[in-house]
Amino acid sequence: MFIDPHAHMISRTTDDYEAMAAAGVVALIEPAFWVGQPRTFVGTYVDYLSTIVGWERFRAGQFGIRHYCTVGLNSKEANNEELAEGVMEWLPRFALKEGVVAIGEIGYDEQTPLEDKYFRLQLELSKELNLPVMVHTPHRDKKRGTSRSMDVCEEMGVDPSMVIIDHNNEETVAETLQRGYWAGFSIYPSTKMGNARMVEILKQYGSERIIVDSACDWGISDPLGVAKTAELALKSGISEETVRRVCYQNALDAYGQSGQMKEEDWLTPPAIDQRTVYEGNSILRGGRDPLISVPGEERKANLIIE
Ligand SMILES: [Zn+2]
After folding, report:
1. What is the distance in A from the centroid of ligand 1 to the CA of 109?
2. What is the CATH number of domain 2-302?
3. 278: CA distance to ligand 1 center in Å?
4. Has this prediction a pTM greater than 0.85?
């Protein structure tokens, strides 16, 4: 069993859900982020948040995967002050919805004053609601941006055990772990942080507070990043226990602090019945035969029948 704690499924297809379920992904977390281009209205942002807590959760369930999400104002769009103010008014309402496991992904992009302002405001919100925080660390000037993100969490009085610092690499991992934070790693195929590099990090740092995710989104990315890393790690002689922790248990322990994500959710799952609808819409198209499975049956029954 795997958990992918960072997957932008809104941008992925039903084939991806089928492949993830077949590879053993039982649960995933969809962080709120930008959509590839700037949103220009608060309403667009609100509808996006409604989609990730609503339709996308339903869609994942139709493939036997439990879907959770994080809500937040991302760092890029924090630079549009009018939009940012509007989103901040809506966030507390979304943060209290079922299946929301953290405030995120928040943090820095270009490390501007407005990014700093909204990062701090959202850390404050996470404290008020006692929710974990998913921090997106910048791709440019990463080392400084990562240290600064942790400095600000501490200045704001957020406990490191409630914070997942994501998109780590070889340069940032030691500091992230040493300061007591969860260290997320996004596996991007054939670049940046590939799974072979991840295996080396596991050899060096072990499994404590390390979390592997795919960060699959609209770009070149792989929704099987977690499963493939697990496979490579096992082949490379890393223990099953280490793999279980970094590809499953640590994500559950970190985000389970929200009280919204529990193992029973997928150990005793609801039946899959693809005839069901969400606000009148189903995932079925063109007279396809629906998959219907009964809880307790072999998980294999969750694979889609043609
Ligand atoms: Zn992301």
Report:
1. 12
2. 3.20.20.140
3. 25
4. yes
